[in-house]
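Backbone shape codes:
===
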Amino acid sequence: MRSGMKQWRRNWRAELEELICCSSSAAGRGPDPEKRQAILKAASELFLADGPDRTSMDRIARRAGVSKQTVYAHFNSKERLYRAVIAQRLAAYFPESPLDIAVGHDFKVTLQEIGERIMRLVFSPEAVGMVRRLIEAAPREPRLATLFFEEGVDRLEDALVQVFSRAIAAGHFPDADPQLAARRFDVLLLDQWYLRALLDQPVDLTGESISRHVARAVRDLLALARAGRLIAQDDEEESS
């Protein structure tokens, strides 16, 4: 179990770094990291301004000040570039695996730290803007929504499942279904705040407000777990 967790943490870092920092097509020619970052910055700005479906590789190249050939040398498709932009946003708030955050801390403190990072990530202007553009683009290019979930939402949920799995096994969290606990934690964190943010309504995102909100989410999650309400329905039927 422990070796599996270590491998999972290495995979988290390796996969994000592979998307953001290197690519097989450019590796053989000695990629220029400054140009790669310029491409990522240009793509992020254009995806946010106009949506990924309405942003061409030509426009990204012009904004980055490089040739289109250079863009493709680093990112062999717009899909790969979109994945890298999402991974870069995630890595800005979780450069290490959430499992590393959990090491050596009280689990309530761990959940508080992870929850606050999730809030800062999800409610950042860039993330909110990206989701707004994705909502507009998804009917035309549903694949974009799939990529967003794969590189962002699902990757982070998988990490939370690992965090809860380890805490449950160590007796630091009541018996529960790890995936159900992860998803309920996410719901408690976003609450009505997320819809308000998407609709450009006022949301108090000061550090103190976020800290209080996350503390309530942690408290409510623990209450649900202690009441046995985070056990999957199949498990309940088997035990009855």
About this structure: Residues 142-169 form the longest helix (28 residues). The mean pLDDT is 88. The chain has two domains: 2-87, 97-239.
